[in-house]
Design a protein that fits this description.
- By secondary structure, this protein is mainly α.
- Among the domains are: 37 residues; 173 residues, RNA Binding Protein, Prp18, Chain A (Up-down Bundle), CATH 1.20.940.10.
- Helices cover 62% and strands 0% of the residues.
- α4 runs parallel beside α5 and α10 packs parallel to α12.
């Protein structure tokens, strides 16, 4: 086959492929032909890729912002709930602390009243707005002059200023002079001639205050003489078992009579105890120690009948049964421990007084 035959064959093949394609009549005159690109430029592909990447990044940024906004909203809500919870806990803690402090102060006041100690000072909270403001350096210098801590833990300037004001108010209150003696007391002592106790309790307040001064001076004098007598003993006697026991009895009596002196200072000793104590001291000053001991027995164990066996066998009231429940014959030594201790200490002072100042009548010596 020569070259001409090959060329004619290829031309006829090309004409046959053109005739197989649809013509413009078959497809319609109004439909334009859609050009199709067989190849794309690298710049177009890169621009399309960059545009798609930017859209994706914008979408991710919007989603991230939405998540962050939701997270901040949840965190704010959680912070508000925590703040409310902490505020509620703090308020409840303050209320509980205030209630606990009030209960403790009430118990302490009751204990001090029972022991005869001075009452607690009223702790009135100071108003920081009404206080004069002082500079920090000047306030620190003033606290140092008063030998007070310049700063406490967790204390700010206002709290330090209130503490300084309380110290100033406390220093402005005049302190009562405490006398020297076996039992230090604010009662002014009386001389020996004025120490004679009357037989009856005075009615007016001024005379009662003077009576408390007389009682305090008398008991301090007896304790001083007792301590001096024990100090004058020989060393062998002091170091013996009986000597140490006698010294311990004196020391214990001095400690147990301290609540009685606190009642003297505040004039709060009830008449049911004051009257027999006055009777004991009055008869002891007259060296009638047996009569004083009888008065001690009446105030300690009382005169009430002690029931033995069956006390109520019928429904009718008997004449002798009312003696079992008389209120004026109660035993004060059984009322509480503090009263028992200072009544027994008075009895010990009475026992020493009859040795130090013996009676002229030997029948007045206690056994």
């Amino acid at each position: 086959m020569d070259f001409a035959a090959l060329m004619s064959k290829e031309i006829s093949k090309a004409k046959g492929s053109d005739s197989s394609k649809p013509s413009a009549k078959d497809t319609g005159k109004g439909s334009p032909a859609v050009p199709t690109k067989k190849y794309l430029r690298r710049a177009d592909v890169e621009a399309a890729r960059i545009e798609a990447y930017n859209e994706e990044q914008e979408r991710l940024a919007r989603e991230r912002e939405e998540r962050m906004a939701n997270k901040r909203k949840l965190e704010d809500e959680e912070a508000d709930r925590n703040r409310e919870r902490e505020e509620k806990k703090r308020r409840l803690a303050e209320e509980s602390k205030t209630r606990r402090e009030a209960e403790e102060r009430a118990k302490e006041r009751e204990r001090r009243r029972r022991l005869g100690l001075p009452d607690l000072p009223e702790d009135t909270p100071a108003d920081g707005d009404k206080e004069e403001d002082i500079k920090e350096e000047e306030l620190v210098a003033k606290l140092r002059e008063m030998n007070a801590p310049i700063k406490l833990f967790g204390e700010d300037h206002q709290a330090r200023l209130r503490r300084y004001s309380r110290l100033i108010q406390r220093a402005a209150v005049p302190k009562k002079k405490v006398t020297d003696g076996p039992i230090p007391t604010t009662l002014e002592p009386v001389s020996g001639g004025q120490m004679i106790i009357p037989a009856n309790i005075p009615k007016d307040q001024e005379s009662r205050l003077f009576l408390f001064r007389q009682l305090g001076s008398y008991f301090n004098m007896v304790l001083s003489e007792w301590e001096l007598a024990l100090a004058k003993r020989d060393v062998s006697v002091r170091e013996s078992f009986q000597g140490k026991q006698a010294f311990n009895a004196m020391t214990q009596s001095r400690e147990n009579m301290t609540p009685l002196f606190r009642l003297f200072e505040k004039s709060e000793l009830e008449d049911g105890l004051l009257e027999p104590i006055v009777e004991i001291v009055h008869k002891a000053q007259q060296r009638r120690y047996v009569d004083a001991n009888d008065a001690y027995l009446r105030v300690s164990i009382g005169k009430a009948a002690w029931p033995i066996g069956v006390t109520m066998v019928g429904i009718h009231e008997r004449s002798a049964r009312e003696k079992l429940h008389q209120s004026d014959q109660q035993a004060h030594i059984l009322s509480d421990e503090i009263t028992r201790k200072y009544l027994q200490s008075i009895k010990r002072c009475l026992s020493f007084a009859q040795v130090r100042w013996p009676p002229e009548d030997q029948l007045q010596m206690m056994g």
